[in-house]
UniProtKB/TrEMBL annotation:
Domain of life: Bacteria
GO-annotated molecular function: metallochaperone activity; unfolded protein binding
Keyword list, A-Z: Nitrate assimilation
A single BP term in Gene Ontology: chaperone-mediated protein complex assembly
SUPFAM superfamilies: TorD-like
The protein, known as: Nitrate reductase delta subunit
Residues in coiled coil: none
NCBIfam families from the UniProt entry: narJ (TIGR00684)
Keyword presence, Acetylation: no
Record flagged with keyword Magnesium: no
Sequence segments annotated as region (Disordered): 189-211
PANTHER family: NITRATE REDUCTASE MOLYBDENUM COFACTOR ASSEMBLY CHAPERONE, NITRATE REDUCTASE MOLYBDENUM COFACTOR ASSEMBLY CHAPERONE NARJ
Organism from which the protein derives: Saccharopolyspora phatthalungensis
Protein backbone atom coordinates (compact mmCIF):
# COMPACT_ATOMS: atom_id res chain seq x y z
CA UNK A 1 0.00 0.00 0.00
CA UNK A 2 1.33 3.45 -0.95
CA UNK A 3 2.13 5.61 2.04
CA UNK A 4 0.40 8.97 2.32
CA UNK A 5 2.62 11.90 1.39
CA UNK A 6 3.61 13.95 4.45
CA UNK A 7 4.20 17.58 3.45
CA UNK A 8 5.59 18.56 6.86
CA UNK A 9 8.15 15.78 6.68
CA UNK A 10 9.09 16.64 3.10
CA UNK A 11 9.62 20.31 3.94
CA UNK A 12 11.63 19.40 7.04
CA UNK A 13 13.93 17.14 5.04
CA UNK A 14 14.34 19.72 2.27
CA UNK A 15 15.15 22.58 4.65
CA UNK A 16 17.51 20.42 6.71
CA UNK A 17 19.33 19.41 3.52
CA UNK A 18 20.08 23.07 2.80
CA UNK A 19 21.08 23.89 6.38
CA UNK A 20 23.49 20.94 6.64
CA UNK A 21 25.31 22.07 3.50
CA UNK A 22 28.50 24.11 3.65
CA UNK A 23 27.53 27.72 4.41
CA UNK A 24 28.29 30.05 1.51
CA UNK A 25 26.87 33.26 0.09
CA UNK A 26 24.19 31.34 -1.81
CA UNK A 27 22.94 29.66 1.36
CA UNK A 28 23.09 32.96 3.23
CA UNK A 29 20.83 34.54 0.61
CA UNK A 30 18.35 31.67 0.99
CA UNK A 31 18.04 31.83 4.78
CA UNK A 32 15.11 34.29 4.89
CA UNK A 33 13.14 32.11 2.47
CA UNK A 34 14.01 28.97 4.42
CA UNK A 35 12.86 30.65 7.62
CA UNK A 36 9.53 31.58 6.07
CA UNK A 37 9.02 27.92 5.18
CA UNK A 38 10.25 26.63 8.54
CA UNK A 39 7.82 28.71 10.60
CA UNK A 40 4.98 26.89 8.81
CA UNK A 41 6.11 23.50 10.12
CA UNK A 42 4.84 21.78 13.25
CA UNK A 43 6.77 22.61 16.41
CA UNK A 44 8.90 19.42 16.75
CA UNK A 45 10.54 20.08 13.38
CA UNK A 46 9.96 23.78 12.76
CA UNK A 47 11.20 25.12 16.08
CA UNK A 48 14.76 23.72 15.88
CA UNK A 49 15.07 24.65 12.20
CA UNK A 50 14.02 28.25 12.86
CA UNK A 51 16.50 28.42 15.74
CA UNK A 52 19.30 27.13 13.50
CA UNK A 53 18.40 29.54 10.71
CA UNK A 54 18.39 32.49 13.12
CA UNK A 55 21.76 31.39 14.48
CA UNK A 56 23.25 31.17 10.98
CA UNK A 57 21.82 34.58 10.03
CA UNK A 58 23.45 36.16 13.07
CA UNK A 59 26.84 34.50 12.53
CA UNK A 60 29.44 36.08 10.20
CA UNK A 61 29.93 33.88 7.14
CA UNK A 62 33.61 33.15 7.78
CA UNK A 63 32.85 32.12 11.35
CA UNK A 64 30.01 29.88 10.16
CA UNK A 65 32.28 28.27 7.59
CA UNK A 66 34.99 27.64 10.18
CA UNK A 67 32.49 26.07 12.56
CA UNK A 68 31.22 23.81 9.77
CA UNK A 69 34.74 22.66 8.88
CA UNK A 70 35.69 22.14 12.52
CA UNK A 71 32.54 20.12 13.09
CA UNK A 72 32.22 17.92 10.02
CA UNK A 73 35.66 17.86 8.37
CA UNK A 74 37.74 17.35 11.48
CA UNK A 75 35.72 14.82 13.45
CA UNK A 76 34.80 11.34 12.25
CA UNK A 77 32.29 11.17 15.09
CA UNK A 78 30.36 13.85 13.21
CA UNK A 79 30.45 12.20 9.79
CA UNK A 80 27.55 13.09 7.50
CA UNK A 81 28.20 10.01 5.34
CA UNK A 82 25.58 7.51 6.50
CA UNK A 83 27.26 4.31 5.30
CA UNK A 84 30.39 5.24 7.26
CA UNK A 85 28.52 4.51 10.47
CA UNK A 86 27.59 0.97 9.40
CA UNK A 87 30.58 -0.07 7.27
CA UNK A 88 33.39 2.31 8.22
CA UNK A 89 36.22 2.68 5.73
CA UNK A 90 36.03 -0.95 4.61
CA UNK A 91 35.53 -2.70 1.30
CA UNK A 92 31.88 -3.16 2.28
CA UNK A 93 31.35 0.58 2.10
CA UNK A 94 31.77 0.64 -1.65
CA UNK A 95 29.00 -1.93 -2.00
CA UNK A 96 26.78 -0.01 0.42
CA UNK A 97 27.23 3.17 -1.62
CA UNK A 98 26.39 1.30 -4.83
CA UNK A 99 23.18 0.09 -3.18
CA UNK A 100 22.18 3.67 -2.37
CA UNK A 101 22.90 4.65 -5.98
CA UNK A 102 20.69 1.77 -7.13
CA UNK A 103 17.79 3.06 -5.04
CA UNK A 104 18.18 6.51 -6.57
CA UNK A 105 18.29 5.17 -10.11
CA UNK A 106 15.20 3.05 -9.53
CA UNK A 107 13.44 6.27 -8.50
CA UNK A 108 14.55 7.92 -11.74
CA UNK A 109 17.38 9.96 -10.25
CA UNK A 110 20.90 10.02 -11.66
CA UNK A 111 23.23 10.60 -8.67
CA UNK A 112 25.37 13.71 -8.97
CA UNK A 113 29.10 13.15 -9.27
CA UNK A 114 30.22 15.96 -6.97
CA UNK A 115 28.96 14.25 -3.79
CA UNK A 116 28.62 10.66 -2.62
CA UNK A 117 25.00 9.48 -2.55
CA UNK A 118 25.09 8.51 1.14
CA UNK A 119 25.82 12.05 2.29
CA UNK A 120 23.01 13.08 4.63
CA UNK A 121 22.16 16.20 2.64
CA UNK A 122 21.78 14.12 -0.54
CA UNK A 123 19.56 11.58 1.21
CA UNK A 124 17.43 14.34 2.74
CA UNK A 125 17.07 16.09 -0.62
CA UNK A 126 16.00 12.80 -2.20
CA UNK A 127 13.50 12.12 0.59
CA UNK A 128 12.13 15.65 0.46
CA UNK A 129 11.77 16.09 -3.28
CA UNK A 130 11.88 12.76 -5.14
CA UNK A 131 10.63 9.73 -3.22
CA UNK A 132 9.51 10.17 0.36
CA UNK A 133 8.88 6.48 0.99
CA UNK A 134 12.27 5.26 -0.22
CA UNK A 135 14.11 8.25 1.23
CA UNK A 136 12.55 7.83 4.67
CA UNK A 137 13.29 4.10 4.57
CA UNK A 138 16.92 4.94 3.84
CA UNK A 139 17.04 7.28 6.82
CA UNK A 140 15.50 4.58 9.01
CA UNK A 141 18.06 2.08 7.76
CA UNK A 142 20.71 4.41 9.19
CA UNK A 143 18.77 5.39 12.30
CA UNK A 144 21.58 4.23 14.59
CA UNK A 145 24.12 6.40 12.80
CA UNK A 146 21.80 9.41 12.88
CA UNK A 147 21.28 8.88 16.61
CA UNK A 148 25.04 8.79 17.22
CA UNK A 149 25.65 11.81 15.00
CA UNK A 150 23.04 13.75 16.96
CA UNK A 151 24.66 12.78 20.26
CA UNK A 152 28.11 13.78 18.99
CA UNK A 153 26.88 17.17 17.79
CA UNK A 154 25.15 17.78 21.12
CA UNK A 155 28.33 16.90 23.01
CA UNK A 156 30.31 19.30 20.82
CA UNK A 157 27.79 22.07 21.45
CA UNK A 158 27.32 22.46 17.70
CA UNK A 159 24.39 24.46 16.31
CA UNK A 160 23.90 21.69 13.75
CA UNK A 161 22.35 19.40 16.34
CA UNK A 162 19.19 21.44 15.74
CA UNK A 163 18.96 20.15 12.16
CA UNK A 164 19.40 16.57 13.37
CA UNK A 165 16.77 17.08 16.06
CA UNK A 166 14.34 18.13 13.34
CA UNK A 167 15.22 15.18 11.11
CA UNK A 168 14.86 12.67 13.95
CA UNK A 169 11.49 14.20 14.82
CA UNK A 170 10.23 13.02 11.41
CA UNK A 171 11.14 9.41 12.20
CA UNK A 172 9.62 6.93 14.65
CA UNK A 173 11.26 6.51 18.02
CA UNK A 174 14.34 4.27 17.69
CA UNK A 175 13.65 0.59 18.26
CA UNK A 176 15.54 -1.56 20.74
CA UNK A 177 17.49 -2.99 17.81
CA UNK A 178 18.48 0.51 16.71
CA UNK A 179 19.52 1.48 20.23
CA UNK A 180 21.61 -1.68 20.58
CA UNK A 181 23.28 -1.01 17.23
CA UNK A 182 24.03 2.58 18.25
CA UNK A 183 25.47 1.42 21.58
CA UNK A 184 27.70 -1.10 19.81
CA UNK A 185 29.03 1.49 17.36
CA UNK A 186 29.56 3.95 20.20
CA UNK A 187 31.61 1.34 22.06
CA UNK A 188 33.68 -0.16 19.25
CA UNK A 189 33.44 2.46 16.50
CA UNK A 190 32.48 1.77 12.88
CA UNK A 191 34.08 -1.30 11.23
CA UNK A 192 37.61 -0.80 9.92
CA UNK A 193 40.12 -2.64 7.78
CA UNK A 194 43.78 -1.77 7.63
CA UNK A 195 45.29 -4.78 5.86
CA UNK A 196 45.24 -5.53 2.16
CA UNK A 197 42.98 -2.75 0.89
CA UNK A 198 42.85 0.94 0.27
CA UNK A 199 39.85 2.46 2.10
CA UNK A 200 37.05 3.56 -0.23
CA UNK A 201 37.43 7.29 -0.68
CA UNK A 202 35.97 9.79 -3.09
CA UNK A 203 38.32 12.61 -2.22
CA UNK A 204 40.74 13.93 0.31
CA UNK A 205 38.24 13.78 3.17
CA UNK A 206 35.22 11.51 3.13
CA UNK A 207 34.03 12.26 6.62
CA UNK A 208 33.39 15.93 6.01
CA UNK A 209 30.49 18.10 5.00
CA UNK A 210 28.92 18.76 1.65
CA UNK A 211 30.47 21.47 -0.54
Amino acid sequence: MTQRFDLNRAMTHRIAAFLLSYPDTELSAMLPTLRTAAVCLTAPTGTPLVELIDDLRQTPLLAAQQHYVDTFDMRRRCSLYLTYWTTGDTRNRGQAILEVKRLYREAGVIPAEEELPDHLTVVLEFAGTTNQTVGTALLLQHHAGLTLLTSALREQGSRYVLALDAVLATLPEPTETTLRAAAQIATTGPPHETVGITPYRAGADQTGGRR
